[in-house]
Amino acid sequence: MAAIKPNYGISRIDQPEKKNHGFYVRITHRGKTTQKFFPDKACGGKGKAQKMARAFRDKVFARLPKARREAAANRRKRIKQSGVVGVTHVVSKSASGKNYEYWQAAWTERGSRKTAKFSISRYGDKKALEMAKRAKRRNG
């Protein structure tokens, strides 16, 4: 079996305003999501929390079919980069299974998160990206 990429399914969470630091594991298979949070403080530090998160992720993967484990090991994420903090490329799937791609601008306004989405199918990739960048500059 090919080895799973070291941080596959593991995200780092750092929210200083909530004193929330740790590693979050989320694995979805056939619509069922398994998730668990490993806080630095409760686990004895950042390194130990990461080690525990990987062990949990590996335990979850051991129960999955071989084909799913191999797919996770070989998966390569291609993320479009905008070059602007707060402007991201999003691929969303509807309930009917259709994919929607858009560029999204995000900012904070009076303590709440605001977003603006610009459809790639409607505006084209370049124009949607420019519109998202403009919205981010104007608002955030």
Give your account of this protein's structure.
The protein is α+β, with helices and mostly antiparallel strands. The protein folds into two domains: 10-74, no CATH class; 87-139, no CATH class. The chain has five helices and six strands, in the order βββαααβββαα. Strands 1-2-3 form a three-stranded antiparallel β-sheet. A three-stranded antiparallel β-sheet has the order 4-5-6. The longest helix is centred in the middle third of the chain and has 17 residues, at 46-62. 14% of the residues are buried.
Question: How would you summarize this macromolecular structure in one to three sentences?
Answer:
The protein is of the alpha+beta class and 140 residues long. The protein contains five helices and six strands; from the N terminus they run βββαααβββαα. The protein has two domains: 10-74, no CATH class; 87-139, no CATH class.
What distinguishing features does this structure have?
140 residues; alpha+beta; three-stranded antiparallel sheet; 6 strands; globular
Outline the secondary-structure elements.
Elements: E1 10-15, E2 20-29, E3 32-39, H1 40-43, H2 46-62, H3 66-74, E4 87-93, E5 99-109, E6 112-119, H4 120-123, H5 125-139
Antiparallel strand pairs: 1-2, 2-3, 4-5, 5-6
Quote the average pLDDT. 85
| Uncertain parts | none
Helix-strand makeup class: alpha+beta
- The end-to-end distance, rounded to whole angstroms, is 46 Å
Number of helices: 5
- Domain tally: 2
Strand arrangement, largest sheet?
Answer: 1-2-3
What is the total tally of β strands?
6
- Give the helices and strands as they follow along the chain: EEEHHHEEEHH
Major β-sheet, in short?
A: 3 strands, antiparallel
